[in-house]
């Protein structure tokens, strides 16, 4: 399988006045095509620093990083922005939707910023297809304040998918959601993974990580554990059980 993310001896140091903080201390990690990986760790463990580097949001680091076979350390700022838009789909805890734009307009943003060449018909079909994939084709004209938290996160996932990225990076995607809605989002992510999408999520919740196929645990700037999950929890089944519990 292709390596979507490969880092070798990844190091990151922050300088706070005269204090030097080593956030990453020689990380080595591979994420291959089709994996569903959870990155875990307490606050200060280095997981967020790693995700910023993986998302090409931070280039001030030492070591090597290849994204879908491309050496990120050799890219200019313009090239980095281009690969970030085309190769990575971002999903954030707080959704990061533009308040005064519709679901349709939020989803189409990567196509506009990435200058992806599509006909007007292809452009609209692509956006509507991704909204349909997350179950919101009938909400395309709604603004974020007209959608529930779960629906807003679905719009964010559709936006992450629209440029057909090599990987989806999701930072605490269920952090602002209740249990049932969290299961709905994890059900969607599992379905996308089954369709071949590579997904890397940050979560501090063990029950959410249990839906993934591999756990990577950070502590004090190092990876201290990697565990493959032979039988991840089935989000659809957990959602059905939650609905039955609520009904009773």
State the main characteristics.
alpha/beta, 4-stranded antiparallel sheet, 6-stranded mixed sheet, Rossmann fold, globular
Characterise the protein shown here:
This protein is α/β, with parallel strands linked by helices and 248 residues long. 36% of the residues lie in helices and 27% in strands. A six-stranded mixed β-sheet has the order 6-7-8-3-9-10. Helix 6 links the parallel strand 7 and strand 8. Helix 3 packs across helix 4 (120-133), helix 5 runs parallel beside helix 6 and helix 6 (179-194) runs antiparallel to helix 8 (235-247). The model has no long low-confidence stretch (mean pLDDT 94).
Task: Give a topology summary.
Elements: E1 3-16, E2 19-32, E3 36-40, H1 47-54, E4 62-67, E5 70-71, H2 77-87, E6 88-92, H3 103-113, H4 120-133, H5 149-161, E7 167-171, H6 179-194, E8 199-202, H7 206-209, E9 214-219, E10 222-228, H8 235-247
Helix pairs in contact: 3-4, 3-5, 4-5, 5-6, 6-8
């Amino acid at each position: 399988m292709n390596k979507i993310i490969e880092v070798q001896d990844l190091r990151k140091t922050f300088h706070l006045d005269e204090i030097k903080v080593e956030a990453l201390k020689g990380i080595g990690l591979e994420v291959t095509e089709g994996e569903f990986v959870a990155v875990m760790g307490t606050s200060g463990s280095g997981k967020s620093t790693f995700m910023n580097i993986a998302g090409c949001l931070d280039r001030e680091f030492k070591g090597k990083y290849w994204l879908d076979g491309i050496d990120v350390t050799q890219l200019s700022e313009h090239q980095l922005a281009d690969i970030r838009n085309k190769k990575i789909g971002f999903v954030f805890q707080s959704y990061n939707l533009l308040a005064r734009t519709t679901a349709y307009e939020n989803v189409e943003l990567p196509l506009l910023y990435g200058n992806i060449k599509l006909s007007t018909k292809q452009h609209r079909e692509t956006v509507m297809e991704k909204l349909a994939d997350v179950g919101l084709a009938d909400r395309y004209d709604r603004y974020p304040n007209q959608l529930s938290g779960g629906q807003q996160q679905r719009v964010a996932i559709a936006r992450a998918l629209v440029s057909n990225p090599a990987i989806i990076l999701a930072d605490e995607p269920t952090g602002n959601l209740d249990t049932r809605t969290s299961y709905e989002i994890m059900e969607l992510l599992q379905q996308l993974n089954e369709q071949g999408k590579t997904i890397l999520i940050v979560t501090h919740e063990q029950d959410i990580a249990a839906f993934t196929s591999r756990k990577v645990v950070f502590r004090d700037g190092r990876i201290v554990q990697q565990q493959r999950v032979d039988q991840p929890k089935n989000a659809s089944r957990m959602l059905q059980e939650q609905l039955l519990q609520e009904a009773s």
